Amino acid sequence: MTKFQVTILGCGSAMPTTLHNPPSQLVDMNEKLFMIDCGEGTQLQMRKFKTRMSKLHSLFISHLHGDHTFGLPGLLSTLSMLGRTGDLNIYAHKEIDFLLNPLLTYLGNHMSFNINIFPLNPDRQEVLLENRSIKVTSFPLRHRIPSNGFLFEEKETPRHINREMIDFYHVPVKQIPDIKKGADFLTPDGSLILNRHLTYPGNPARRYAYCSDTAYAPEIVQYIEKVDLLYHEATFAESEIARAKETYHSTARQAAEIAREAGVKKLVIGHYSSRYSEIGTLLKEAVAVFPDTELAVEGKILSL
Q1: 278: left (phi over 0), alpha (psi -120 to 50) or beta
Q2: Is 67 one of the catalytic residues?
Q3: Helix (H, G, I), strand (E, B) or coil at 217
Q4: Tens of pLDDT, residues 130-154
Q5: Are residues 232 and 98 part of one domain?
Q6: Catalytic one among 67, 184, 189, 292?
Q7: What global pTM score does this model have?
Q8: Are 187 and 52 contained in the same domain?
Q9: CA dist., res. 128 & res. 141, Å (int)
Q10: Which residues contact 223 (CB under 8 A, 6 or more apart)?
Q11: CATH code of residue 76
């Protein structure tokens, strides 16, 4: 089974603190490294946790508030100094041009690679990237400005051949690819051998969903149902629910309610308000609703 893991680089919110870095994550999937959000200091976190900048494939920016984007200038400059030559794709809302265009003008001919911007649709679900083994989808969240969540998912692998049964029934080599895709086998004497007798199930597809920043939004359940791992912002404790509603953020309990409604396997909460020097209260409130909840912490690696 190939690697599929998430590294937390930052899990704080808009107001800087010495406890948490601004939001950013790395998704290591099928030998490709994807970044979600790029808060201030993200490149330093990559150095600190010994992640390879050279492996970075694409960036996905959930929305254009500064705590999710202010790390871009430094990261892009460093990638150029490291001699990157391959294109870098950035998936973000179209207004990111106001940030990137002046930066690229300033850097001028010093940039060693091209940047391709792919605008996000803030109103509907959309496939952003797809190949034979993975798919990345965006979907709308509910925030003060356009905001999107992201779903990273594997394609289900073909069924595994039961070599003993393949040999027993003398299945021709040329028919094995179809059998791996689910075909039955017809023997020369006309007997039908069902696929389940010739194969084992393939590896189950794993899925990771990222939801930050967003108010409590039950409508997102349809996009994240039964994922293996859900990251959902939990900016406030329940005592600040009025503030959460005012700022279009979620409480830890609301994040857990979304996880429970969606039937996910595991919940990780983050995007903590700077008012909390101790985040155990947030975990306690979430666990009361959804027991399989963890706190995001810088450097934590979550394997699917």
Answers
A1: beta
A2: yes
A3: coil
A4: 998 899 999 999 999 999 999 999 9
A5: yes
A6: 67
A7: 0.89
A8: no
A9: 16
A10: 125, 137, 139, 149, 151, 209
A11: 3.60.15.10
